[in-house]
From TrEMBL, chains A, B, C:
Organism this protein belongs to: Vibrio comitans NBRC 102076
Domain spans labelled Glycine transporter: 11-83, 98-169
Parts of the chain that traverse the membrane: 6-28, 35-63, 69-87, 94-112, 124-144, 156-175, 181-197
Keywords (A to Z) from UniProt: Cell membrane, Membrane, Transmembrane, Transmembrane helix
Lineage of source species: Bacteria, Pseudomonadati, Pseudomonadota, Gammaproteobacteria, Vibrionales
Listed PANTHER family: INNER MEMBRANE PROTEIN (PTHR30506), UPF0126 INNER MEMBRANE PROTEIN YADS-RELATED (PTHR30506:SF3)
Family: Belongs to the UPF0126 family.
Name this protein carries in UniProt: Membrane protein
InterPro entries named among the record's database cross-references: Gly_transporter
Annotated coiled-coil segments of the chain: none
Chief subcellular location: membrane
Length: 210, 210, 210
């Protein structure tokens, strides 16, 4: 009846990669990009964060050993290119935002975990690499397409990810026996704040901005 | 009478590095850059793509073991800085575009070949790294100088490179005994599409853009 | 009475990291960034150059083994966020510019030295990596915040750093017994040119610009 944890992670990874690629298609459509640029941006958004993490860790980039991420990003980008008006429908975009939320929550936890397991700059290195894993691809996408990067937006996007990574990294380093429950709480927290941002339009509070 | 293949490759590498640096000088002249920025952009354009490829492959960056690329990029940038009005002459610019076309064709094949020989994410890894080798330096140049990157242009530039890399990578992986002839065809194809773009002003077709 | 050289280097490293983070706060304040973005930009500015250097060298990124740089960058960014009007005072900003000048001088020498000790592309590799160490973080900051990068400014910033790195690298490679005195001269030279730029508003001369 229920999927195992590893099956669940695989499903979220696939859906998350699709959501990342779709976000790139929407960004590319603002600039009337061609099909190759859409695919390039789809790949960059989907794997750019994890690639940056792996380069900083000094380990082989993950997709060189697991090409499915690239294939999914390419297929999603091409689908998105052909069906861009479908992607722009309000309900489709909303679903995509929620899938993206689940994905950034999970990818940030995975990135934190990978850095921690390699003993990379504990306790803060895993936080930094967790955040990079989740939002790095989106930042590179925005730089390549020359629109204001998500770092400059008032949307609650990188902030919930960072909170989740801080919580999870602290647990891994100081009370590792609680890491599973901490991962669940961190993901739930990211999802809840993203829900507030998407559904209730909650933004970064004024006192937290310059 | 005829140069050997390896001599031919050396000559094209040198001329291509010069052409890449000259393209950086022209980009820098739009922003009235100083001499150091011209040289920095010349180096970045000339070796940025191959450097990104080598970082992703996890191998030493190529120019740390073969500094001639850097020296040529510096010398060309300084020459271009002094003689910028010469570079802007229509016939000089046209020659530069054709030399650039030969260079991106050859560098993309070399990048594909290097990734393939290291078994990096076959069959799609070599395509991605081949494209990055050829156009990555130009993209970084555009980001640093804050003009729309070549990915956002309607010019047929990255598209022919990608087609060539797909053809060559597919041959290497599936029918390696044909790789030499495939390399020649891939380069000829890139050159032909670049010729159409430069001479006939053929652009990315409307149906292939959002 | 006098600090040892290694104590002096530690003090300058700390103050320089603070100055880099403060420059990021000032840049972020132009865009009304939120606290997380301020911290991200503070970290990127403080360690981005050295991180790029280490990735190109193929060695572990320095801050994964010496987290104090990250902690100082975070603390300085948060302090700067809270006290941004203090940072914008003319005399505070002037002090920050001078501390920044000392820091880029020293970091460029350290970066040159690290590349040279690894035999990276002598004699020009150390120059390139020295410059990247000192100004790379600022360039990434400017790209992420989408303002014209310091490479496009008329300010004498990257140029004195480059002159210092050329002098120091040449000494290391050709007359290593003079490397200590050369480091001092290189740092003094960078400081003097930065002093002319900050105090006397000396800019890149016209003949050195396109």
């Amino acid at each position: 009846m229920f999927a195992t944890t590893s099956e669940l992670i695989s499903i979220i990874s696939i859906l998350g990669t699709v959501a990342f690629a779709f976000s790139a298609v929407l960004a590319a459509s603002e600039k009337h990009s061609d099909i190759l640029t859409v695919v390039v941006l789809g790949i960059v958004t989907a794997v750019g964060g994890g690639t940056t993490r792996d380069v900083l860790l000094g380990v082989p980039v993950f997709w060189s050993e697991e090409l499915s991420y690239i294939w999914i990003a390419i297929a999603s980008s091409i689908f998105g290119f052909v069906c861009v008006s479908f992607l722009k429908k309000h309900w489709v975009n909303t679903i995509n935002l929620y899938v993206d939320a689940v994905a950034i929550a999970m990818f940030s936890i995975q990135g934190t975990q990978k850095a921690w397991s390699l003993g990379f700059g504990l306790p803060i290195g895993p936080i930094i690499l967790g955040v990079i894993t989740a939002v790095g691809g989106g930042v590179i996408r925005d730089v390549l397409i020359q629109r204001p990067t998500l770092l400059l937006s008032k949307e609650l996007y990188a902030i919930p990810v960072t909170i989740g990574c801080i919580l999870y990294s602290a647990t891994l380093v100081y009370v590792p026996q609680l890491s599973d429950i901490s991962a669940v709480i961190a993901i739930a927290l990211v999802l809840y704040i993203r829900y507030l941002a998407i559904r209730k339009k909650v933004q970064v509070p004024k006192w937290a901005s310059l």
